[in-house]
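=== Structure Prediction Worksheet ===
Name of assembly: unnamed complex
Input type: mixed (protein and possibly other molecules)
Chain count: three
Listed entries:
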Amino acid sequence: MTLTKNRNRRVSGAPRPARLGRLFTGLIFVFLYAPIFVMIVFSFNDAKSRTLWSGFTTRWYAELLEDTTILNSLYTTLSVAVLSALIATVVGTAAAIGIHVMRGPRRTVMLNLNNIPVVSPDIITGVSLRMLFVALLGFLAIFGLNFRLGFGTLLLSHITFCIPYVILSVLPKLSQMGKHIYEAALDLGATPRRALGRVVLPEILPGVISGALISFTLSIDDFLISYFTAGNTSQTLPMVVYAMTRKRLSPKINALSTLMFVSVLALLILINVFQARQDKKRRQGDTAKTRL
Amino acid sequence: MSKELIRLADCSMAFDGETVLNSINLGIKDREFLTLLGPSGCGKTTTLRIIGGFETPTSGDVFFDGVRINGVPPYKRKVNTVFQKYALFPHLNVYENIAFGLRIPRPDPSDTAMRPAKISLGEKDIARRVHESLELVGLRGYEKRRVHQLSGGQQQRVAIARAVVNRPQVLLLDEPLGALDLKLRKEMQQELKTIQQQVGITFVYVTHDQEEALTMSDTVVVMNHGSIQQIGSPVDIYNEPVNAFVADFIGESNILTGVMHRDYLVEFSGRQWECVDTGFDPNQPVDVVIRPEDVTVTRDIAAAPLTGVVASTTFKGVHYEMIIECGDERWMVHSTHAQPPGETVGLSLEPVDIHIMDKPEEFDNPESAARVSDTADEDFDA
Amino acid sequence: MSRRLALPYAFWMALFVVAPLVIVLFYALTTEAGGFGLENFIKLQVYVPVFLRSLWLAFIATVLCLLIGYPAAYILSRETPSVQNSAILLMMLPMWMNFLLRTYAWMSILEDQGLINNLLRSLRLPALNMINTQGAVVLGMVYNYLPFMILPIFTIIQKIPPSMTEAAQDLGANSRRVFRRVVFPLSLPGVLSGVTMVFVPSVSTFVISKLLGGGKQLLLGDLIEMQFLGGAYNLHLGSMISIVMMLIVLAGIQIMNRFGSREEVALP
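=== Predicted Assembly ===
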């Protein structure tokens, strides 16, 4: 996200970092990657030990891919992520437009409420949503409607903590757009609905997309809120991982980590290549402009 | 150019309890070039937005061709706007920007039913009209360009083409030249005037630039603090400003405090002067406005009614601008002959060059208001 | 563009943001027996050491992140854009892996039969007891949240217009003075958001303390988890702990903002 719009600039005038500085940042990267490196190496370790090397194997990967608990949880994780990203993006984009035109105390109240899930610790969001769901399910049970914590409550929680991020990424696009663009569309005869669809949405689309991507990654990554709201029937991947770490010896986790690392790496490289191509195009556009 | 097309009747506007427009009454005739002129925050943009349908007046009425249109949304008005920073749609190319309004289905004029069927223009008609309007603004061949590839002046032309292509009865222009450099401004002034005559529609133009207003307009409306100060032709406004604010805002002026003793006799700068004004109360405090170019500077001190010391002399191209200190007062004088600083000179005035005005009550300091306008180019928009 | 578009979300927030907090507050102020009042709050006395430990460890972790993160962000800001881009990418890469996995990896490095101790033993050095200590917990916090400190600081330093540092140099400031009088004050908002982004998850974590602290270094998060899902099941007490923790976090953010708004500088 920061990554996708990095217009970097050197603090000019200041000298390039000295060797000592480079060493320092280098050490930080060693610190960040050492555990990951260890995991990757030991994911190919033949013995169950996480620390003693005893030969190369890929059987943990094979076991991982046959583990139905993990595969099911992966499916749950992805479907919750896709659904919550979709719903949060629709609700959040509409809400952002609504908040954008609000003024005064109404706007302040909306923005402050919107910030609650962002600033509160995840554990509080998880706990409080759990309390709500337990109360709601208890209430429904009075009418003979018996539901349990599960996929539904999981999805509702994920939507709830994703919407604020959609709003926070769409709002700046709206203010960048300036109100005159929308007014110009009305002025040219477009109904408010048409102006929204043909002019405003295309204009804020980058914000909407990045909101959706943020939601998707937050949802995939979440453990704490899922832990409190999913109940026993639906387990997300992080929940399964947590259960596995409690059992300690399980080289499958290393294999899983390695796979995740590799896929994230591949994704990032892909995005970067795509970005580089876009930048090139834009640069060409700019040269075309200067030639005019 | 006789029929009245738009009328604002007692229009007032307040945002969050702050009055921005104070009971405006204004008629705009068909096919006239009318300019709303005033400093930042004077309410000129708000007036334009009321006509465009972006604001509804807090009180008062707006009439279009005799029909009250207070609540009519902008997309149902036969009015189009050229926005301050053009507001071109960045995701569309030049062609699609201009075609935007043409692609919108509109009620069929030949359908007489209560809710007439909506018809859309064919692609051929759209293409023809887009090309016509590009031709009008001199941008033929720019159809496929992206908006961000255009210069400011070109964007400006596209904005005009995009508005005019819908054949509105009135075109509203909100400081359209504000973002252009001086040379381009002058060119576009001429061009806008030509376009207006070519398409033969009403232009309502907002600016804080008095020169622009005088050059282009049939009628100038000078506004300040949400009220109309004066409505008139450029010549009237310049030669016969109704108050010190207008005088100061239109061109540079010396504004002096004086007392009107009786008809044809005023006192300021420590002596009595013959003048041509009448109709003031005896001994009424007044503002005296004198244009810098109307002051005659002589070396012949003895014959001059007023003497002063030259504080500074600046070459301004066509003339020299001199600041002359006469006692506590500082006079600005334009003359083709320079006087060296420190020189004692005489100043003289013709009676017709002395303009007497009521002291204004609704604003405290006309000078400070006028000075703001030189730097700020954005009107009040809440 | 009507504000009615925000209506569905307004209802959503009422149900899923406001109502849950009201319920938690209600539970915090009541007891199983039906009492109403601050009874649960008084019961918290027993847990004062846990509160203090949580705050202390989160504070240490935040300070360490700042001490490591600020220089790193500053050094990065002076690199060429291509180096910066790769560095940022490398920094975000681990963040996109689940933090459980990252924390788990540290277990195998730190434990008694872990990599470090194996290495020490092979060098015939005495083994160290690292896992299940406060140090391990702090290390886990620093490891997981360090990027949250570096990124905002880097972003804001990078946004400081070159003309500002040039102007300072032009006025005769040497590079140390430029840093102290221009770059550092202008980067404070980034520091503040970094501090918040490290402190809040650190003070509320229960996973790091469980995995690296072995359950011996009970933190606030563990306490809450125990009341809602664990052995100590007591929703009322758990709610009260949550409320108190929320208040601590909010107070922290408020103090930061107060401190920040004084220093707030608008950057383009």
